[in-house]
Design a protein that fits this description.
The chain is an all-alpha fold. It has 17 helices and no strands. Helix 2 runs antiparallel to helix 9, helix 5 crosses helix 15 and helix 10 packs across helix 12.
Length: 395
Amino acid sequence: MKNKNLSVLLGAAFLMATSAIGPGFMTQTAKFTKDMGATFAFVIAISVIMSFIAQLNVWRILAISKKRGQDLANAVFPGLGYFITFLVCLGGLAFNIGNVGGAALGFQVVFDLDLTTGAIISGALGVIIFVSKNGSKIMDKMTQILGAMMILLIGYVAFSTNPPVAMAARETFMPSQINFMAIITLIGGTVGGYIIFSGGHRLIDAGIVGEENLDQVNRSAMLGIGVATIVRIFLFLAVLGVVTLGHDLDPANPAADAFKIAAGTLGYKIFGLVFLAAALTSIVGAAYTSVSFLKTLFKVVAKYENLFIILFIVSSTFILTVLGKPAKLLVLAGSLNGLILPITLAIALVASKKKSIVNEYKHSQILFLLGWVVVIFTAYIGMTSLKSLMTLFNS
């Protein structure tokens, strides 16, 4: 990596990773580990491979075309970018409500604050970052520092629980069961919705585009998936060590319970810090990326980008603290997030073959074919889950 680009490349990677590592990511990982035990290792492995294929395809095409996701979609089919933007922003807003709630819970655990006060402080911290003209640079540094902190803290708890690593390794390659819904849930949580675009859009904003920068884009994409994977594995091992000993985790908050059982009050405080860091970075990532979808479609957003990011964070905080969590919207947006991935990945794959978009660039045929495998798999499972969701939503 060139030194002048190193900070941005690391920032893009950690922005993607920490956008993925939100409150839902932690709760999700703890719940699946509780339910599936060591065989969850196979789910993690498959989801990581598919997430890597999806991210590398999308980031490369964004860099080569020098177009953000919405503009790439409009170039493939006029008007499609507006539809993608609607889905991404709806999902981003809904998940940010959950992120603010997660940060509030983190403040409650660490500082014993009530949830409303914690939520307001969380939103205020996000706003402070983008009040500065150097908001993007501050965001880069914050995601790197908090991302590294999460790895160290979760790693400490993972090793303290003495998990059955050999059993997990065996289940990775010879699973005793296969849970397809868990796989699609993890893929959606790692590269679904706005997450897959977060780092790629950051690189475009910094001008790290074109075929001459493709190696750097590849490394940043791989680092982003790598960081998210390390956190997922450490968290899995931490919870696995607890459940293997026969402890029954609280279904309301399995991750917090696992940390508390593993390391007592210290473990519970570590959970609070990790949950807080995960939520704060996700608040920033969701707001930044959602607004990046609007700024090339609406000139006023481009002119006042930081202001719109602030409004996005304030809206999320307001909805959580005043109106409460709109449960059905959150559930529907979650399902839409899973459906966005096959759509956006398919758009990138189609764009990779259009000379009007990528000029003379020749996209990797292996990545292209593997990308379509991911599209078909995630679309099928996503549509299956959507049928169940619509039944719930109409009930």
